[in-house]
Amino acid sequence: SFEVKLASSGRTIRVAADATVTSALAAEGILVPTSCEQGVCGTCLTRVLEGEPDHRDMYLTPQEQSANDQFLPCCSRSKSACLVLDL
Ligand code: FES
Q1: pTM
Q2: I need a labelling partner for 6 at 20 to 30 A (CA). Which of 29, 33, 39, 68 fits?
Q3: Cβ of residue 45 lying under 6 Å from some atom of ligand 1
């Protein structure tokens, strides 16, 4: 598991191995808009301020993925212990 930290509030939310980032956020009342939930449409695109995402989507280009400044939280995870999100 890993944690996501919300830059606006400083809240930290743990993402269990069997949960998505969007489902972990929704369980805490933080709703990120989603559509496909499979990393295809880009609807859930979220800015990453710190940390290294584990990109699992098919939406971002390899260059965009390697910049590590955005990710698709419906399917992607984290290589870092904590990801700071622009939420
Ligand atoms: Fe479609 Fe996340 S909801 S990419």
Answers
A1: 0.96
A2: 39
A3: no
Q: What is the CA(26)–ligand 1 centre distance, in A?
A: 15
From the CA of 47, how far away is ligand 1's center (Å)?
14
What value of ipTM does the predicted structure carry? 0.99
Strand partners, 61: none
Ligand 1 site-directed mutation target among 20, 31, 74, most atoms within 8 Å of CB: 74
Q: Closest Cα partner for 13 from 32, 36, 35, 40?
A: 32
The stretch 13-35 carries a mean pLDDT of 98
